[in-house]
Amino acid sequence: FVYQNKIWVTDMNNNRIDVYDKASHKLLFNFPNTDKTDESYLFMPTNLWLANDMVYVSDIGGFNVKIYSLEGKYLKTIGSHGDKLGQFSRPKGIAASNDSIIYVVDAGFENVQMFDNEGNLLMFFGGPYKGPGDMWLPAKVSISYKNLEYFRKYLDPEFDLQYLIFVTNQFGPDKINVYGAVELKK
């Protein structure tokens, strides 16, 4: 992920995030530098997203999401291992909107769970593939505020499109699903 002239990379082999200078590609720092007993430890970081001056990391080995400051200071954990709402089986992709809604892809549940910045579950969408809009081993989620005009024609006229949510699928006929975050027009 490129953010503020730095390249942020998940390093599964070393259980950390490596941060490089965008111009020189020199390693600047990495985090967390802790052992397995510390709550900030990353067991197997798979994806990351930077927004709102925070680093959001999906930890498939820890069955959760960890949030850090831009300096690598641990802030909090969202979710846990399990099969209930707000828990994860295989968290993979992660993204956060400008209004601090956190989107987490779970390949095991084949859905995306949405959390507020405090870690409270807001809702989920998707589900095992039966047709368009469903997911088949989803892997990544991404948010875009660009090119909204191409998708507005698909909305009910009473709603306004705020941003797009793209979810990739590893299998099935729909390799990319496009969803929209909407608000009721005032």
Describe, in plain words, how this protein is organized in 3D.
- With 186 residues, the chain is mostly beta strands.
- It contains no helices and 15 strands.
- It has strands at residues 2-3, 6-11, 16-21, 27-31, 45-51, 54-59, 64-69, 74-78, 91-96, 102-106, 111-115, 121-126, 138-144, 159-169, 176-184.
- Strands 1-2-3-4 form a four-stranded antiparallel β-sheet, with no helix packed on it. Strands 5-6-7-8 form a four-stranded antiparallel β-sheet, with no helix packed on it.
- A hairpin with a 5-residue loop joins β11 (111-115) and β12 (121-126).
- The N and C termini lie far apart (35 Å).
- The mean pLDDT is 96.
- Overall 3D shape: globular
Q: How do the helices and strands follow one another from N- to C-terminus?
A: EEEEEEEEEEEEEEE
Spatial order of strands in the largest sheet: 1-2-3-4
Q: Give the C-alpha Rg.
A: 17 Å
Main sheet?
4 strands, antiparallel
Give the strand tally: 15
Low-confidence stretches: none
Helical/strand content category = mainly beta
Q: Residue-averaged pLDDT, rounded?
A: 96
- Residues in helix, %: under 10%
Q: What proportion of the residues form beta strands (DSSP E)?
A: over 45%
